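quick q for whoever's on today - can somebody do inverse folding on this one?? i tried earlier but teh output was garbage lol. tokens:
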């Protein structure tokens, strides 16, 4: 698991669309699907319920979304702090 996979998950969760998330990340839809499948395999649980016309978060996905948002935000804040320290 890495920040890129978390950001990918967040975009799919917010758009409820693999295609729109792929477009926002400048990736192909199969690449996004592969990244989400890999994340789900690593976690050992499904994060999305998928059909041909519909995507929704599972209960595990809803819980993971909140944590993923916090992790991405905290990592960005840590990067920003480190950059400010190197300047000063």
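ok took a stab at it. sequence:
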């Amino acid at each position: 698991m890495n920040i890129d996979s978390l950001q990918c998950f967040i975009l799919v969760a917010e758009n409820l669309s693999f295609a729109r998330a792929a477009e926002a990340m400048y990736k192909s839809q199969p690449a996004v699907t592969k990244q989400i499948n890999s994340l789900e395999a690593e976690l050992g649980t499904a994060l999305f319920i998928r059909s041909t016309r519909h995507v929704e978060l599972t209960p595990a996905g809803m819980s993971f979304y909140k944590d993923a948002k916090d992790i991405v935000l905290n990592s960005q804040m840590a990067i920003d702090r480190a950059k400010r320290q190197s300047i000063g």
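fwiw The longest strand covers residues 48-50. also The helical segments are 3-15, 18-25, 29-43, 59-87. so keep that in mind when u check it
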